[in-house]
Amino acid sequence: MEEEIGKLKKFGTFGEEMREEQMIGKRTKWVFEVQRNERGEIYRLRARLVAKGYSQMPGLDFGLTYAPVSRISSLRILLELSAKNSYTLRQCDGKSAFLNADLKEELYVEVPDGYEARKGIVALKLDKAIYGLKQAAYEWHRMLNEFLEGAGFQRSPNDTCLYKAIPGGQWRGCYAFVLHVDDITSAVEYEDDWERFEVLFRGKFQLKEVNLVKWYLGVHITQDKSKRVVEVDQEKYIDDLLLQYEMLIQYTNHGKCRKPTKMKY
User: pLDDT for 9-34, tens place per residue?
Assistant: First the structure.
């Protein structure tokens, strides 16, 4: 919680502190999450402050709310492009994405648990979006799209979360990526293009992870550029299903296996 509160302060999420007794801020809650990697191993425990957006009034507390996400068919195109041309698959993840988005509406929240406010403070003005607000995803996507188009990328007319570098611009070769909220999965022809993009992105936002593509929305991805092969599987998802329904087969040292437990309905 202390880490998350420090992050909220760093992003300038909270503005003016309100003392008026009649000021009623939107309620918030803490959500705790166990994050796992592609192998199912725990690598992080996190706490996130979330607004109870169901209490917001349409037309007063929020306007537009829709934010698109990429289609799975766009990811397949990206993977095929990478396999055919030996392009490098890269992935980066924006840090605390929604906290970057400015709010147009005047919103206040109650002082959250763990936040050290001055005596008499009953509410905090929100200058930035927080998770749980109705308009948070829309404002983040709008802000990110403006940045990407300004950096020389063009949206596909068939998928508004599929971008490609505009030919003849600042990008040396082919550069395309799909966008899913704050996750950017790219197919890059030249490494210096990726390095240039990373510098541009870090100049505007914070990056949490920058890696070769391994994991995308439950799909495990491996690439062998020398063989021009990209493989995808959902082994972990299948294992989780088998474990959920007690159907995992356990092998003995002698190579034999016991019968799986019957499914429970």
Answer: 888 888 777 766 555 678 889 999 88
The letter for the amino acid at 220 is: H
40 contact partners, CB below 8 Å, separation of at least 6: 236, 239, 240
Q: Tell me, what amino acid is at 213?
A: V
**At 227, phi and psi to the nearest 5?**
-100, 0
Closest C-alpha among 114, 63, 39, 81 to residue 185? 81
The candidate with the shortest Cα–Cα distance to 179, out of 196, 159, 157, is: 159
DSSP 24: -
The answer to whether the beta carbons of residues 128 and 103 sit under 8 Å apart is yes
Q: Computed over its alpha carbons, how large is the radius of gyration of the chain?
A: 22
User: CB neighbours (10 Å) of residue 36?
Assistant: 12
* Phi, psi values for residue 184, rounded to 5°: -115, 115
pLDDT in tens, 219-256: 888 888 888 889 988 888 888 888 888 776 654 444 44
Provide the whole-model pTM: 0.81
Q: What span, in angstroms and rounded, lies between the C-alpha atoms of 45 and 67?
A: 27
CB 64 within 8 A of CB 101: no
Domain edges within the chain? 2-233, 234-265
Place of tokens 């550029």: 225
Query: Which residues are within 8 A (CB) of 96 and not within 5 positions of it... i.e. 6 or more apart?
Result: 7, 11, 206
| Nearest residue to 27 via CA among 112, 101, 106, 130 | 112
For 82: left if phi > 0, alpha if psi spans -120 to 50, otherwise beta; the answer is alpha
Q: How far is CA 259 from CA 20, 53, 160, 253, in A?
A: 67, 48, 48, 15
74 neighbors 177 (Cβ within 8 angstroms): no
Residues whose CB is less than 8 angstroms from the CB of residue 24 and which lie 6 or more positions away in sequence, other chains included: 108, 123
